[in-house]
Amino acid sequence: MYPTKIFISHVLEDKEYASKLRDILDSLGIASKSCVDWKQADDVIAMLKTDLQECDLICVLVGPKTRASKFVDSEIDAFLKKQSDLPCGLLGIILPEHVDFKRPYYDPIEVPPRLHDRVEWEFGTIKHWTLDEASWKSWFDEVDRRRRTGSPSTSLSLLMSNRKFPWNASESVGKVTNDFISRLELSDAPSD
Question: Any idea what DSSP says for residue 160?
């Protein structure tokens, strides 16, 4: 099932990709919103609340400066806290200028922490940028399936560690094992 309206979260430097994504969404018959729509708004918080009620998926465009953006992180958090019967879906898109674009995996230290946390818990997903509409359709199906499997926690459960995570479960590079969480807990234990 495709979303009816998508919120595009991005930093100002990535507005060209946000515009291209809007063109893709328009051709698929999907409406979109972003912080660009708020330029004339007197009350940004009110606009965000309105968009929260209207959008059923947040797409985070991940460029070189996205991880450092507190605003993008706040948008992710707000959408994940959305109060409704069905949580907002989460899709991260690694842009061509990002250090991880040509890799078969992404480095968690290079993406927004809340985005990585939701991917880690299989609530969200991260993909490479493309103009291929068929890929976007399949990603929307995947995100819809993930958002229907449970509600995300709004607190960060895992902090970044210097590990690599695969783009797809079928890839063996950097595959996360079941004991990952227990290893993190052990590594956080105080040493004597």
Answer: -
| Pairwise pLDDT comparison (85 vs 156), residue with the higher score | 85
Distance CA 129, CA 96 (A): 7
**For residue 6, what is the enclosing H or E element?**
strand 5-9
Task: Report whether 99 contacts 107 (CB < 8 A).
Answer: yes
What is the C-alpha to C-alpha distance for residues 76 and 9, in angstroms, rounded to an integer?
8
Secondary structure element (H or E) that encloses residue 166, with its range? strand 165-166
Helix axes 44-54, 70-80, angle to 10 degrees: 40
Q: Are 7 and 34 in contact (CB under 8 A)?
A: yes
Amino acid 91: pLDDT: 94
Query: Could you read off the pLDDT of 27-54 as tens digits, one per residue?
Result: 999 888 776 655 555 566 677 677 777 7
**CA within 13 Å, CB half, 185:** 5
CA 46 from centre of chain: 22
Give the predicted TM-score (pTM) of the model.
0.75
What pLDDT, in 10s, does the model give residues 126-161? 999 999 999 999 999 999 888 887 655 544 444 334
Q: Which residues contact 20 (CB under 8 A, 6 or more apart)?
A: 131
Instruction: Write phi, then psi, for 58 (nearest 5 degrees).
Output: -110, 125
